[in-house]
Predict the 3D structure of the following.
Amino acid sequence: MSTGPIMPSVILETERLVLRAFTENDVDDVLRAASDPLTQRWLPIPAPGRPYTRSDAVTWCVDTAPATRATGDGQHWAAVCRRTGRYVGSFGVVRTNWAARTTEIGYLMAPDARGRGLAPEAVVAVTHWVLLDQGFERIALKAATDNTASRRVAEKAGYVYEGIERNAMPLHRGRTDLAVYSVIRPDLVG
């Protein structure tokens, strides 16, 4: 448990989405999204070279996602369609530096939810909540340089391209450079 600050537990709503805490009922959907070949191409989850299993999805939903908030590292949300309640992806902030008031946003989309503008919609909601409601100063977003879909999400959500972190992340096969984007509070209130 955290002995320092933690983010409040909230539900975020957008025009088409509800972002809420993960539950055990999300396990099968998380497994489907996280084990998808495109997800696995760009995210080395659960660890480089190891396939994503149902056990990993259970651990994520029941332990890891809630612990991120409880330890003060950030917060994770399951994004579901407002109309159908169907899981569409995972969004979260991690690597939170409370003294500097900075954090990093990450996400993954379920295969059938890609290409519909849902990821930028959720990223904007999380960004506004973190910067405006929680008073943070900066959010970073990092994506593999060749992951054009994720880089488009950053741009559509208003993140500013900063540069490349070379050889920054392991993948299941090899390593990748990361394109770094950010939003700072003056970008939203200026």
Q: What stands out?
A: The chain is about 30% helix and 30% strand. The first helix runs from residue 27 to 34. The chain has one domain: 12-189.
